[in-house]
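Deliverable D4.2, example record:
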Amino acid sequence: MASNHASSILVRTQTLSVNLQRQCALLQSLVHRSQNSPSILRVSRPSRRTMSATATMGSLNLENINPHVREAQYGVRGELAQRSEKYRAQLKKGLPPTPPEESLPFDQVISANIGNPQQLDQKPITFFRQVLSLVEYPALLDSPEVLKQSLGYKQDVIDRARWLLNEVKSVGAYSASQGAPGIRESVARYIKNRDGYPSDAANIFLSAGASSGVNTLMNVICASPESGILVPIPQYPLYTATLAVLNARVVPYYLEESRAWTTNLDTIKESYQKAKAEGTDVRAIVIINPGNPTGATLSAEDVRSVLEFAAENNLVVLADEVYQTNVFVGSFTSFKKGLRELQKEVPKKYDNVELASLNSISK
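Output generated by the structure prediction step:
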């Protein structure tokens, strides 16, 4: 980025220099003509430009950009997060503060503003990292004994990397829009083993992170400014920020701290009815399970009640389940499993429920 910026400044400086030379030549010509002609010459003054990065310099500024982008809030990366980075940089210097800085009464900054477990020293899964290293640099696979004896790689890591490369050929290559078929089939097998019900790879979509999947779903669901989506509060601000950019409506429902931040169906119904009375076309409900930032895990009964409510009101269910392996109290029940059990108990009644479950390997 720095190189591009420097090149941009250089080109802009050269352009200004050429313009100034042309203007000087024009003025000299005009002066010469005025000395030899009684007519009055008027010279238009060029608009003033500077090299500073001000709003008047470019075509875009806070006043003329998309107002919905300007109104979007992403608090977990906002002022507090920026202040924490400033403190972290100050601590990293390890030197006495330079006025007007003051010394800090602490020696460490712990970021608790966002779900980022590895920053809080949760150890990454070695298997993932080793497989990634091999698919990024396949030449390592030419020396499997060195990998195993000197670097601590296991045979299952080597086998997985070879299988992946056989499926995708290269991690630098484009894949099918829905994702590489072999990987989607692998995901489907995982879901089947997790829930005990069949999973179809044709219904699996791979995206560049769960946030990209959420963004795509929101763009499809929100058809007009009256479109609304039920969103839990507190929540990860991806949902409210995306709805703001789409000029759609957030329909908040509040989680109950007294009940360990779980959902209350009566609260959901109240928010839904209020929004409908105000003219909102409520089209979907977001459930974050386990909760972010609360960490709460929904019981199987809560999962079931939300699905029943969605079926009654023709709502799409967006189940954000990216923290499903980070469960500390209780056990995780996926919405996919909950839906399949309802369909088994009451044939046909829940066949039209539309469910999008989101998972991620980043956690």
